[in-house]
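Q: What would this chain look like folded?
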Amino acid sequence: MALRGPGLVSEVESVCGLCPGACGLTVRLVDGLPVGLKGNPNHPLNRGGLCPVGLAGLDILYAPNRLRHPLRKHAQGEFRQVEWEEALGEISEKLKGIGTAENRGSAAMICGEPSSLFQDLAAQFMGWLGSPHLACTGQGNVLPFTLTQGLREVPAFDWSGADLVLSLGLDLFEDGPAPLHAASALIGARQTQDRARLLHAGSRCSLSASKADQFVAIHPGTHGALALGIAHVLVREGRYDSRFVTAHTYGFEDGRQDGEERLGFRRLLLERYYPDRVAQICGCPAAAIVRLARRFAQASRPLAIAGGEAAEGSNATCNIMAAHSLNALMGSFDKAGGVLNKPSIPLSPLPRVGGCDGEPSLFESAQGGGLLGTDPLEALSQAVSDGSPRLEVLFVIGDDPVGSRPGGSRVVQALRGIPTVIALTPFLDETCDEADWVLPTPVPLEQWEDATTPPFSALAVLGISRPVTGPLHSSRHAGDVLLDLSSRVAPEGASLPWGHYSDYLKDRLEGLSESGQGALISGSFEESWRRFLEDRGWRFRQHQGMDDFWSGILKQSGWWSPARPQGEGGQLFDTPSGRYEFFSQKLYRELLDRWGGLASSADAQQALGRARESLGLQGQVDELCLPHHEPPHLVGRGDLTLVPFRPITARGRLGTASAMVMEMFGHSVLSGWQPWAELSPETARRLDLEEGDLIGLQTISGQIEAEVRIRPGAASEAVHLPLGLGRIQAPGAETLKANPLNIVLDSRDPLSGALSLSSTRVQVRLVRRRPHGGPPPHLSGGEA
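A: My prediction, written as structure tokens:
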């Protein structure tokens, strides 16, 4: 190096790509070698901030345990290294039999990549194979918004325009869909006097709770009840938007449904969710509920959202519907600081391939769990078990369905019933153990990266970046692998029409270039000017043709539209009534249809009763289709309810492959590597436990051990465990077996079919006292 003299230093803009947050990066290079990362201050989502996982991008790039070559499993179960040509040649031969009439629909894919552009390509590939069986995981629970607004995707929440956010269970600054964006939109990018206030309610004193203007600790699974208690105060004191409720909602007042009296949301609130009763349900003071409600009502642009633990219980759909009803009461729709349509990006349309449009996907099968939703992995397990459809090939891209969810053993059995399983991943994981082929993919910084608008965000953002450095190992972009297979299998001229993934990206962006909408990511002054113009209907192009636009977007690493998406009547409320529905007619019809109540009004009441019993619901019959509190369905026996949570160090699926991230994994309790269990002081006293004691948490599925951390503010009947540890790709994984998902018992939301993470009761036992006279846990270093 000395002979070459000082290295040439440069900086390039890029996209993080390690989680759905889609933050902008600035990469520092010396002689073309990435040596440093920092947040891009011009990026509208993170404004220069980066989380610990984003900062570990270099550690992940240079991780010694990355996959270096394709692997093929021998008959004896051992993997051996193969060349790409051999791997793609044999897989393409397998796929040639898939497109025949007798094997049609015998391929499936599980895609965990968050970018909608990649998901579109995955859909093209599966359509080209003649199969509708594609599951894009990590989409969030859209059912509450379907029942109330008729939406097919989660709407946007305008953080940057709100002056008060009420968060029910969602740790916006750690476990939210885009924590850096939330921090920037609510606090960082505003003048001090204009910062939004945050009210938070949950069972754990999380980072958001500690930063909130008001935090109310409640029992696990009671978020919906708290929202309804707040709604009660708003209605009783007349502090809601009566004009919006009258003009744009359905079911607020009592009425008639199919000739029968129907309970209205107003009477439901006033009779059943008064503060004293809600306080008893939630375990918090009634005065705190009244204070939350009045602060919410006093805001000019209030916004309520439920997520995190509120969206991961057996009553998740009811919790979210209850929280969302607060937005309806305040008329927080289609305006700054409110709920908006998900912003669209005007990409070029895709060619139609395959011809399996309208064919049912096995991942949407009714066997998948819920009344109106499906757990795709449960549906896959059922399909393999039943042999309908018969699957020959399964692709798993950007996901680890065995290790990242409860019930991994059922997924293992399903994978073992499929002749050929192909996993595409940069690191070995639990799913690879069941794969026949493991194909290494690059990590961010060495591949074409694209990131579309994060969930819940009101900004239309498209991050695009070229590889910052060449691949360090023999890896290929998953998109290039799909396109290569297409060209090998199809007759000439019948393959997908792109040579490489970069060709596909450039093709899709032509529509964006021609639209003239938005702007390349630049700076706050330019953004303010463009928002001013676009809000008034002005658009102008910054570029001369597609090539100019393409080079510009690669240089700036992205595009965004400062204009807020505008709702257009039926688009915002695509329900049978054309309004926001407190009383969900879709749910009402589905219950009657499923339980035989369409013939007469008397049959309807009986059908609702049968539905309530069959679904295991505990709400009263007349409130089933209204936002109501559904007590969580707890399974197992034990002293406490297990409530897993995701620290910010567990974001994405690659973060724990970094030793740096593992070292700071438990930053909030000054611990790394080892799992910990958070208990309230009252619970610790009751169980005779002290800080640093080692305890065992046991269910019928197994046991894990964790050190006690006493956390004031936590609910007294819950134990909180961090997710993300115990995965085999993590450094030191052979000694870390504490994956909380391994002891979570099977419980589901009966409406959406989604697995519940916070419905398991656990038994707690003392394993070992902290050594007398030893250092307190936060000073012991936490080495494995």
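The two ends are 37 Å apart (CA to CA).
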